[in-house]
Amino acid sequence: MNPLQNKTPEERRASAAKGVATRQKNKREREAQRLLDIELRDSLKCEIKELELKRKVLERHELSDKTALTLTSKVLLSEAEIVSAANPYELATGVYFLIGGNKVVYVGQSVNVYTRVSEHHDKLFDSFAFIPCEREMLNTLESLYIHVLRPPLNGDMHGGKQAPLSLNKLMRIFA
Questions:
Q1: In whole angstroms, what is the distance from residue 43 CA to residue 7 CA?
Q2: What pLDDT, in 10s, does the model give residues 67-105?
Q3: Strands 103-110 and 94-100
Q4: Rg value, the chain, Cα
Q5: What is the 3-state secondary structure (H, E, C) of the chain?
Q6: Architecture in CATH for domain 87-174
């Protein structure tokens, strides 16, 4: 027995329209699910590629670490470790000290301490240190250290050490 036999033509049309609407809705839902599945698949493919790349990088680092350990008895720092330990370039401005035999033998100043220290071929020293400071304070800070430490490789002048600012001028600034 056909359930539509006892229905009016309007009820049959409504029932047919409802069936068409249900099929269209189901088709849209299947298509939406298919697109979601494709999107998920593509996303997973990208994630797999990224993980494979990370694995290759890690394998390369592991090989490099083994090689470095064999050659130098040290492992290599990662790029992130190097970057996190980096100092801003501006910190290279300051007053520097050339040290020989545990004594300060020369005091100088530079806006690029590392380059300036490497230019001191004429002086005998085995290490150096520096104090970062602002450009405006270089003359004052260098002069203070020269007058206090009296390093032997800084030139003598009128019974005192040659410095950008004389001890008298420094005392007037302080007063």
A1: 51
A2: 988 999 888 888 888 899 887 766 689 999 999 999 999
A3: antiparallel
A4: 39
A5: CCCCCCCCHHHHHHHHHHHHHHHHHHHHHHHHHHHHHHHHHHHHHHHHHHHHHHHHHHHHHHHHHHHHHHHHCCCCCCHHHHHHHCCCHHHHCEEEEEEECCEEEEEEEECCHHHHHHCCCCCCCCEEEEEECCHHHHHHHHHHHHHHHCCCCCCEECCEECCCCCHHHHHHHHC
A6: 3-Layer(aba) Sandwich (3.40)
pLDDT in tens, 27-71: 999 999 999 999 999 999 999 999 999 999 889 889 988 998 899
Supply the mean pLDDT for the chain: 90
pTM exceeds 0.70? no
Domain ranges of the chain: 8-83, 87-174
For tokens 């790349």, name the residue: 53
Amino acid at 105: V
Q: With contact defined as beta carbons under 8 Å apart, do 96 and 109 qualify?
A: yes
